[in-house]
Amino acid sequence: MPGLLHCLSGHDLGFLRAAAELWSVNVSGRDVPAFTRALAAALAAHPDFEEITTALPEESRTALADLQNRGGRMPWPAFMRLYGEPRQMGPARRAREKPHFFPTSTAERLWYRALIGRDFFRQDDELVELAYIPDEFLERMPAFIVAVPPAVPLAPVPENALKRELRGEDRVLDDSCTLLAALRRFGSLSALRPTAPTGLGWELLRRLLADLGLIARDGKTPAPEARNFLEMPRGQSLQWLATGWMNSARFDELRLAPGILCQGTWPRNPLPARRALLARLACLEEGAWYAIEDFGADLRRGNPEYLRAGGDANEWIILSARDGRLLRRQEDWLEVEQAWVSFIVTRLLFGLGFVDLGWASEAAEPAFFRRSQWCESLLHSRGALELPPEKAPAVVSSVGIISLSRGTPRAARYQLARFGEWLEHGPERWQFLLTPASLSAAAAQGLNTRHLSALLRKYARPAPPPSLLEALGRWETYGREAVIERLWVLRLNAPETLQALRESPAASFLGDALGPASVIVREGGLEKVRAALARLGCLTDLEELPQ
Q1: Alpha-carbon span 141 to 39, nearest angstrom
Q2: Between 20 and 30 A from 267 (CA), which of 127, 389, 402, 481?
Q3: Are 52 and 23 in contact (CB under 8 A)?
Q4: Contact between 217 and 231 (Cβ < 8 Å)
Q5: What share of the chain is helix, strand, coil (3-state, %, to 5)?
Q6: Which residues of the chain have pLDDT under 70?
């Protein structure tokens, strides 16, 4: 769809000044084109856009949600029948009646705010007049999620169809903390073992956090905004993640859905299809279970083009992951829709806490879902979502093992994880072992034991053992004082043999002496030393053969 500059072009100066007054922006220009450009730039970057649009009357939000669900556009005659038509006025009449302050229809209210435009576009070789939301506004538009009831109500499934259910959780918050800590500690996710098939999974979660700005552009380090996210109360953090996903124009589920392969770099806006799905989710009955397949059919019935509304589907190259077929024909599109709907429901909606999942008898994949207890709060972000506070302490042993639970503040876990070797990383317990190597790694990141001691005193209960704090202080002063290694030791019956060995070609493979007739054999030199001893007339026994 066109942008704000196109939407504002063609209007007289009186209209442009009315729009600027409604948005409370100060712009100027030596002529109408210059004023138009300045106003378009100011509206595109308006800092209070979300607050202003959210405060619109309900009928205006409904109209915008209707356009959102249709990809940001709909035929002008249809829009006019539903929401009225802006009155035709010249500059003089507009100055007298001030329709921007006293609109007589929903369309007129949106028109003078430049939230909608009207123009002709070519569709299927003919010109069609459309109402549209300018691109800059469509990308920033809040997810109003105005419930649009289907023409034929979606029927719930009987509860006896379910043999197993899994409630939506807030585990994504703990996984996000673990992922950000792993990136900060190691620069990659290699230290994390694969997760269960339900939930987001590490790579999908990494992509989501990156698109929401919590991971820096290099993809290897957390962004500064991650600290605020980790310090939020759990309920606020979950709402923040959910809202960020609902409004993200970068996170494209179609390219991530299992079962299909998207090739090429064709442009696509994922917002229209996602918002169409969320609008249907908002209509579902509380506590009722629905078949995922029926839900996809209901979406299709209400708007057959919902998934293709975000771009030119004729340019999309989508293959079946099963047999490599190009999914281009109309009858093939059902396979694309099913993969997309299943992926969003079972991975994104479940992983972010919107829904619970249900399984049929002996089924490997979930077939049913229902709205979770948090769904309404996540869809609309109305009021605080109350989740258990993070007040559990860290527990520190005398040997340097730090143990934390899901109730420990995520900010504390993120910081403590940078100092230790990772022994366990969830889902219920996290353990880190303090070693000279891990402390050296922390020091390389600008952290010292004073930071660690302060964290332990703040979060550990009972207080950390004095012997451990003393050991940290000694390490800060003296560095590594003790090491346990696995070594190969050569024991000889006479010091003369050791001296002869040091004068042989194998001398470079000998390490520190452990006595007059004992010496360490360096890694990789075992066979060289045995061969040198054989040439000296000594056969050697190995107590344990190397693996």
Answers
A1: 18
A2: 127
A3: yes
A4: no
A5: 45, 15, 40
A6: 1, 123-126, 144-152, 194-198, 310-312, 382, 477-485, 543-547
> 168 with 136, same domain?
no
State the pLDDT at residue 289: 95
Residue holding tokens 């009722």?
288
215-258 pLDDT tens trace? 998 888 999 999 999 999 999 999 999 989 998 888 999 999 99
Structure tokens at 474: 């000694």
The single-letter code of the amino acid at 432 is F
Regarding whether 403 and 357 lie in a shared domain, the answer is: no
- Cβ contact 106:84 at 8 Å: yes
> Is residue 264 classed exposed, middle or buried when 0-12, 13-18 and 19+ CB atoms within 10 A define those classes?
exposed
- Cβ-Cβ contacts under 8 Å for 330 (sequence gap 6 or more): none
Q: Are β-strands 488-491 and 518-521 bridged in parallel, bridged antiparallel, or unpaired?
A: antiparallel
Containing structural domain, residue 314: 159-380
Chain-centre distance for alpha carbon 11: 41
Sheet holding 510-515, edge to edge: 488-491, 518-521, 510-515
- Give CA–CA dist 133/377, Å, rounded: 26
Strands 355-359, 317-320: pairing is unpaired
Ramachandran angles phi, psi of 537, nearest 5°: 90, 20
Distance of CA 475 to the CA centre of its chain: 38
Examine the domain organization and report whether 236 and 309 are in the same domain: yes
Instruction: Provide the pLDDT for residue 198.
Output: 56
**What does pTM read for this prediction?**
0.67
Per-residue pLDDT at 141: 83
Query: How many independent structural domains does the chain possess?
Result: 4
Whether 374 and 385 have beta carbons less than 8 Å apart is answered as yes
How many residues does the structure list for the chain? 547
Backbone φ and ψ for 206, nearest 5 degrees, come out as: -60, -45
pLDDT of 544:
60
pLDDT of residue 76: 87
Task: Please say which residue of 140, 168, 203 terminates a domain.
Answer: 140
Separation CA 461–CA 473 (nearest Å): 20
Strands (E), 411-517: 421-425, 429-433, 488-491, 510-515
